[in-house]
Design a protein that fits this description.
Blueprint (H helix, E strand, L loop, with lengths): L7 H7 L13 H8 L3 H14 L2 E3 L5 E3 L2 H11 L2 H17 L2 E8 L2 E8 L14 E2 L5 H8 L3 H10 L1 H6 L6 H14 L2 E4 L6 E9 L5 E10 H6 L2 H23 L1
Antiparallel strand pairs: 1-2, 3-4, 3-8, 4-5, 6-7, 7-8
Helix pairs in contact: 2-3, 5-11, 6-9
């Protein structure tokens, strides 16, 4: 239920949040009910979103996301400095390891994969570009959280206690903070089947020159293949690669 004190622009933009993998189209009546506004107001919002290309309407008067989203995604990729400085390094990692390589970014409180560089035997992953990942499971989300400021991490902890417990993470703040401090100190995190059955990932953080966390770079393979490699060598490789990306970003920012 939406906060009745929300402004009109907030209510209108909240329509875009209604679209999920399980619900890709909506009627005006359904939308009005979910954002708690009148039918006339809903139609006014829908017209603005239609005119902007953010929504489209089919012959059955159902509304879905519009082509403008595709254009915005292209512009987002074009202006993504992390992706720009990571592409060659991702290719190098794939060539050296034979594993897939993934870049994940932090957008607000969501971790989203933005690019995958596939190996000759690519993994069929359940999560891909644009699909938010569980923030407390998997290598990339954990190194991202580990490199957040203490205040930001504590805010996430306070707002997600039930989810944290379901993820089998420490549910007391001091223990939770220490868990992520240890990941930050290590400079990497290895997940083994945390997010997807049989899948392993090794990630290291990507940061700006002032230490602000921008995302993570990961190599992904099966658990069986990951268990066969020399972990000390591969974790040094991923850490060094992340540092090289960080240095390239620093040179542009400074």
């Amino acid at each position: 239920m939406k906060d009745k004190t929300s402004s009109s622009p907030q209510r209108m933009l909240s329509i875009l949040d209604l679209f999920t993998e399980d619900k890709l189209s909506w009627t005006p009546e359904n939308i009005a009910d979910h954002i708690q506004v009148s039918i006339p107001t809903t139609y006014r919002y829908l017209k603005i979103l239609l005119d902007s290309g953010l929504l489209q309407k089919d012959l059955n008067q159902q509304y879905s996301l519009g082509s403008r989203i595709i254009t915005l995604d292209h512009l987002l990729r074009t202006g993504d400095k992390v992706l720009h400085h990571s592409l060659q390094h991702m290719q190098n990692l794939v060539e050296k390891t034979g594993f897939d390589c993934v870049i994940s970014r932090l957008y607000g409180d969501q971790v989203i994969d933005t690019h995958k560089y596939a190996s000759s035997s690519p993994m069929n992953l359940g999560y891909g570009r644009g699909r938010p990942r569980p923030i407390f499971m998997g290598a990339a989300p954990k190194v991202i959280l580990a490199n957040m400021s203490t205040n930001k991490l504590q805010k996430i902890f306070t707002e997600n206690k039930l989810t944290i417990k379901k993820a089998h993470l420490p549910d007391e703040w001091d223990s939770f903070k220490k868990y992520y401090q240890n990941i930050r100190k290590a400079g990497f995190y290895l997940s083994m089947g945390e997010l997807e059955l049989g899948v392993s990932a090794l990630a290291s953080p990507i940061k700006s020159h002032d230490g602000f966390i921008l995302g993570a770079i990961s190599i992904v393979t099966t658990i069986d293949r990951m268990e066969l490699i020399d972990l000390s060598k591969i974790k040094n490789l991923i850490i060094r690669t992340a540092e090289e990306i960080n240095n390239e970003i620093d040179q542009v920012e400074i």
